[in-house]
Amino acid sequence: MVEEPAVGGVSPVAAPVEAIFREERGRLLAALVRRFGDLDLAEDMASEAIEAALVHWPVDGVPPRPGAWLMTTARRRAVDRLRRDQAYAARLAVLQVEADRAGPAAPVESGSDLPDERLLLFFTCAHPALAADDRGALTLRCLAGLTTPEVARAFLVPPAAMAKRIVRAKKKIREARIPFRVPGVDELPQRLPGVLQVLYSLFTEGYAASSGPDLQRLDLAEEAIRLARILRRLLPAEREVAGLLGLMLLIHARRDARTGPDGAIVLLDDQDRGRWDAASIEEGRGLVLVALTGGPPGPYGVQAAIAALHDEAADLATTDWPQIVALYDVLLALTPSPVVALNRAVAVAMRDGPRAGLALLDELADQPRLRGYHPYLVARADLLCRLGRLPEAAAAYRQALDLAGTEPERAHLRRRLDGLRLS
């Protein structure tokens, strides 16, 4: 398979053309998948079309309809490929029949050169038959347009291992005959949460990296937001899509204040809220209203409402902790989870004091999912510290230090331990 040039990476193309490639590639790939029913062929032809554009556009200029230019080039090359390989063409003919039976294409996006069929890629990449890690990898590969080495860096695995993972996922799609289509109205409620979970997992890794030298991986968080914007345009009536985008924007708004010049962690209470992104907060708040209006709330809408309360407060002391606890009660009913219960316990500690929060954390101590989950240990250590139970706090900090994945987190925990020894 041809590996396309990294959009915004190694190519010398000017920034406006980079933006065209980034925007058009996903739409082009989806249209080719819909036309030919084969992801490998679609990727190869999309890559060849972009490579051709890199040769011709600097000389001839960017065409008035770049998406149509890319699609025409890719389609011609695909036809040439099929003429040369009759066996491949025969296999694709069968796949195309199956794709045609799968249902109509996604709606056309106004003003676009191509039918915007990216919805079928969202749902194909996030199909429940695929392994969880494979879903995220395919989403970055197909929809974000990252090269395989770039996806490997995003998942912190060797490129060869990522290449095998992507090949495995494509093979699963082919052998399981996973259809390239948008689910029907009756299927959407069951399938959409999987798509949203893939995007939120990508964002979470960008907001709080699982390992590495930095606390945040802003490029990954911003790519997740860009994909969520696309999904929002494609599914404007889905309130949970609005909720997810709002949640991402409200959290990402704090990015510049979360670390110091040396990369050290700055806790929420110490952040310069003047550095928070006011435009993202305003947009996020508007999306919260969309997510919470017109029916029962969904989990992303509720989480976005919690994030909005944090962003609206002047400081930690004036944060509306009773309302945050109430929202966590709603969220816990919607998605019972030890992690949600952990976050609720921290909010209760801010509302009712550290003793009340610690009692709730102690009730969660036997939850398998929280074993080895260092945020739980950090939360427990912080509350023990506030209660003056310093030896226990130190023990919890040490356990968390052994589990922390990034260097800023480890440095922060070492500072907390040093502070305990000085007291």
TrEMBL record:
Residues 21-86 form the RNA polymerase sigma-70 region domain. Gene3D superfamilies: 1.10.1740.10, Winged helix-like DNA-binding domain superfamily/Winged helix DNA-binding domain. Transmembrane segments: none annotated. One of its GO terms (molecular function) is sigma factor activity. Keywords: Sigma factor, Transcription, Transcription regulation. GO terms for biological process: DNA-templated transcription initiation. The keyword Transcription applies. InterPro entries: DUF6596 (IPR046531), RNA_pol_sigma70_r2 (IPR007627), RNA_pol_sigma70_r4_t2 (IPR013249), RNA_pol_sigma_r2 (IPR013325), RNA_pol_sigma_r3/r4-like (IPR013324), WH-like_DNA-bd_sf (IPR036388). Pfam families: DUF6596, Sigma70_r2, Sigma70_r4_2. Residues 125-173 form the RNA polymerase sigma factor 70 region 4 type domain. Residues 191-288 form the DUF6596 domain. Belongs to the sigma-70 factor family. ECF subfamily. This is RNA polymerase subunit sigma-24. It comes from Rugosimonospora africana.
